[in-house]
Amino acid sequence: MIQMPSIRVNENLHIVLWLVKDLAWLMELRILGAVMIPPTLVMAFFIAWQCRAERRELVHAVAVILWILANSTWMIGDFYLDERGHGLSQAFFLGGLALLAAYYLVVLPLDQRRRNARATNG
Questions:
Q1: pLDDT in tens, 80-106
Q2: By the 8 A CB rule, do 47 and 6 touch?
């Protein structure tokens, strides 16, 4: 039977991919930067899929996906679109922040209230 790598192993690989992508951006290695976008995103989606059973972890994994999309569109805009595309990057960044805000300000407090209600009623 094939055993899947742990989420932690995949997160560590994901960090390496992300750092290579961002280093390519910093060093203006356009082709390497563009080539690193798909594997970085694929790993982020895979980690999110691995986290799907735990809402808190999934929310954070999706926020990371949005962050990478923001970061990648910013890089593409810098490399190929005469530094345009920041609006799309901002939308992805704000989407990630909105997702986390909704989780921490709405979902988590509701979950805690439900748990407290069950504890006092049960």
A1: 998 887 999 999 999 999 999 999 999
A2: no
